[in-house]
Design brief:
The chain has 303 residues and is mainly α. It has one domain (28-302). Helix content is 71%, strand content 0%. It starts with a helix and ends with a helix. Residues 17-26 have low confidence and may be disordered.
């Protein structure tokens, strides 16, 4: 009787077309439909990663607040006060914390996704799942940490009365969208390449460190513009600097939470620059997923 019921259930399931690698070919809705069908597993992976992060820790998830606060205090005291980076930047504490919060989300997204396939090698070798679910779980975990730190930022901005007009706070959405778009695309690409070339995860750590100093987090955008003008450097160098989507996103985050800023603290046509960066990011995400799809066929053998 039990066998008959099992056969009846199997008979009711729709046929799935499978390619030579044993992978389900996308139907209506494609890969998005396949991932949505396994959203429960995605949430379980996110929960597992978050629990494993601070397992056997007495303070647990309080470290999600303690770590960025210590980092903020270090930069605020050493760079802002000792090295006088705060001069010329009113309400430097909120300016600094806003940039660090968004950068940390980008850093956690890319770093976590890069090693996600290797960390889940046991699952990859044993069962078939859409492999994208592992880097996406890392993005979800980074998103949870970001929400905690964002709450601290909002509270701090309210205490210091640093928030701008409500209309200015709408910059939050395109800024977060840029980081999420590029972080997911880069993480998806590097997670696949890292299976074949294990040095990628160490190289990523170095590049992410450089990315922080290449963005206006502990200094203002005007400082970069002034240096280029002082040394009569070509104007295209400033344009290259502003082509960095992380730079644009952090400038947008400053507009969201740093009400002390003036129009001179931001480059011209920031809206247009963010739109162009978003369009390029969408193309980059598609290309990154194509590369991931091509490389995932031999994941099990390489692991």
């Amino acid at each position: 009787m039990e066998k008959t019921q099992r056969f009846a259930v199997l008979e009711s399931l729709p046929f799935a077309t499978v390619d030579a690698r044993g992978m389900t070919l996308p139907g209506r809705g494609g890969k998005i439909r396949e991932l949505l069908a396994r959203r429960d597993l995605l949430f379980l992976l996110i929960r597992r990663d978050l629990q494993a992060r601070y397992r056997d820790s007495f303070l647990g998830f309080l470290w999600t607040v303690i770590r960025p606060l210590i980092q903020f205090l270090m930069y605020f005291i050493v760079l802002g006060q000792f090295l006088r980076a705060a001069e010329g930047i009113p309400n430097f504490a909120i300016y600094l914390f806003a940039g660090l919060t968004l950068y940390q989300f980008f850093n956690d997204t890319v770093a976590g996704a890069t090693g996600s396939i290797l960390m889940n090698g046991g699952l990859v070798k044993k069962i078939y799942l859409p492999r994208e679910i592992f880097p996406f779980a890392s993005v979800g975990g980074a998103g949870f940490m970001f929400l905690v730190q964002l709450t601290v930022l909002v509270v701090a901005a309210l205490i210091f009365r640093a928030l701008p007009e409500p209309a200015q706070m709408l910059w939050f959405f395109p800024s977060l969208g840029l980081v999420l778009l590029y972080g997911t695309a880069i993480g998806l690409l590097l997670s696949a390449v890292n299976v074949y070339l294990r040095d990628i995860q160490y190289l990523t750590e170095v590049v992410l460190m450089l990315a922080m100093w290449a963005s206006p987090i502990v200094y203002s955008w005007r400082m970069v513009s002034d240096v280029i003008a002082r040394f009569s450097l070509p104007s295209w160098m400033l344009e290259i600097y502003l082509a960095n989507p992380l730079t644009l996103a952090i400038l947008g985050f400053h507009k969201t939470f740093w009400g002390a800023g003036s129009p001179s603290d931001y480059p011209p046509n920031l809206e247009l620059r963010m739109v162009i960066a978003g369009a390029v990011g969408l193309v980059f995400l598609v290309v990154a997923h194509r590369v991931f799809t091509r490389l995932q066929g031999n994941f099990a053998q390489e692991l």
